[in-house]
Amino acid sequence: MGFSKTVSGGGVTVVRVDGQLIVGNRQELKAVIQESLEAGERKFLIDCSHTAYIDSSGLGALVTISKKIRENGGDLRLAGLNEDLRSLFELTKLDALFHIVQTVDEGLTGF
User: Fold this and answer.
1) Are 77 and 107 in contact (CB under 8 A)?
2) In degrees rounded to 5, what are phi and psi of residue 6?
3) CATH of the domain at 70
4) Which of 19, 26, 40, 70 is deepest in the core (most CB within 10 A)?
């Protein structure tokens, strides 16, 4: 479980979520995004292709992160949601809030 951050050639900050996004690690993800915003980064892609589970506090963290990025003039995309996670976003209507793409490459295109 954990997070790794890279910056693409196009200046997009890609944060990979490995394992789960749950109550125990949501603050770590928020800190990664906050540090990046403070460094002037504005384009974010959260890679969930290695994410098995997101609990309600993880969803809440993503909503908070999305709001913070938009307030700072930025853009956020989610990539690589498995079938269960995609269903979760549809059931909670969060698919309307987030720009969701199939792959990281697709997410990087058009930023």
Assistant:
1) yes
2) -135, 160
3) 3.30.750.24
4) 26
Q: Are strands 43-47 and 51-54 parallel, antiparallel or unpaired?
A: unpaired
pLDDT of residue 70: 97
Q: To which H or E segment does residue 34 belong? A: helix 26-38
> Could you tell me the residue range of the domain that residue 11 belongs to?
2-108
Count of structural domains, the chain: 1
Residue among 41, 108, 107 at smallest CA distance from 74: 41
- Which residue shows structure tokens 């792959």? 103
Residue 68: is it exposed, middle or buried by C-beta count within 10 angstroms (0-12/13-18/19+)?
middle
**Which among 99, 71, 82, 72 is positioned nearest to 17, based on CA atoms?**
82
User: Which pLDDT tens digits describe the chain residue by residue (111 residues)?
Assistant: 689 999 998 999 999 999 999 999 999 999 999 999 999 999 999 999 999 999 999 999 999 999 999 999 999 999 999 999 999 999 999 999 999 999 999 999 978
Q: Are strands 2-7 and 13-21 parallel, antiparallel or unpaired?
A: antiparallel
